[in-house]
Amino acid sequence: MSNTNPLLEQKKRVPPGVVVVIVLVLALMAGVAFQYLRGHSKVDAGDQPRAEPALITGPGEAGKGVTVGKAGAKAQIDLYLDFRCPHCAEFEEMTGATVDKLVADGTATLTYWPLAFVNPEASPRLANAFAAAAANGKALTYADEMYGDFSKSWTNDQLIELAKQLGIGDAKFQQAIQGNTYGSWVDSVGKAADARGVTGTPTVFVNGKQLETKELTPEGMQKAVDDAVKAAS
Amino acid sequence: MKPWAPWVSLVARLVLGGVMLVAGALKVSDPETAAQAVRAYEILPPGLADPVGWGLPFLEIAIGLLLILGFGVRHTAAAAGVFMVVFIAAVASAWARGLAIDCGCFGGGGRVDPGQTKYLEEILRDVGLLVLAIWLCFRPASKFALESDPNTTTGDTAP
């Protein structure tokens, strides 16, 4: 084992400890580069515009969420979400199509309650951006896009770029992002959620009844809404 | 040196390196979740928790690869050992403070139901890995390593 070939010993080799340190520093640099890309990657809202339900209650009313859909629907879905909550992104990916359809065909109205606790820096920023988009009638599309590219940092520049691609990125929108226009509204939504006993995200109520975690599937959502419609008619 | 020691070191290298590599790889593509897992420990301030969550997976992958290849084993194992000590301390601290979180070691993380914590398993696993790291610090020479004898850096591979 102890190979002490004098010829090889004479070669000056970089000590392995130094190499290890260099590799670890390179790994950290890769991490920094990845982080930079997250904050500077291109925003692509896609070519196909999504069907956007009509706005019933816009953002800004203290303690009230953003409601979309057709007024008079028999089922009402309350969705408490955080735009930086990984489980919400999974939930959105899994059940988004089902919920969108229920809202589009007038079976249910959907209220977004954007909370801001998961990431103290980004969550309030994204909730504010969502509110600004909702005020311009793009609540569902904007939420879907943010969840759809969840690993993106969603810097303010990226948020504004997304709004531009959706045709709502005017000066007023940019001002809302830079000035955190809906910050106090987001706070009021958080207080309303606390008052209702919502402790985590995603939390879903259908006609006032909270769904269990195992019901947060396309089938579970469909069934809860069907039951609510039956009970209401 | 005992003839079986290099074989034990080989197994230690592959197990410790494999776990580190997998743990890093599972987290590296989901920085938001990784950062949230670090925040859930409520040890670091938010400004520091995020970069730790983002950087940790890259370091784990690098250490894992170095161990599996068998290069600079003694130093890499020392680094892995430091990681394990930090992980054990963090999980123990979360446990002692009555937090109910997942360690987020292999992705995921964040709050769980109080009945679903696995602190003891997490700590025992990390203690086991720490033992492997300590072994490698004292017996870095192993079979099938890029570097057969870390004390004399010959550049030869093991016979």
Automatic annotation (TrEMBL), chain B:
Query: Which GO CC terms are listed, alphabetically?
Result: membrane
- Record keywords, A-Z: Membrane, Transmembrane, Transmembrane helix
* Record's subcellular location: Membrane
Superkingdom of the source species:
Bacteria
Membrane topology, record value: Multi-pass membrane protein
GO BP annotation list: methylamine metabolic process
Query: What is the native source organism of this protein?
Result: Kribbella albertanoniae
Q: Which Pfam families match?
A: MauE
Protein's name according to its UniProt entry: DoxX family membrane protein
The Methylamine utilisation protein MauE domain sits at 6-138
Which stretches are transmembrane? 51-71, 78-96
Main localisation: membrane
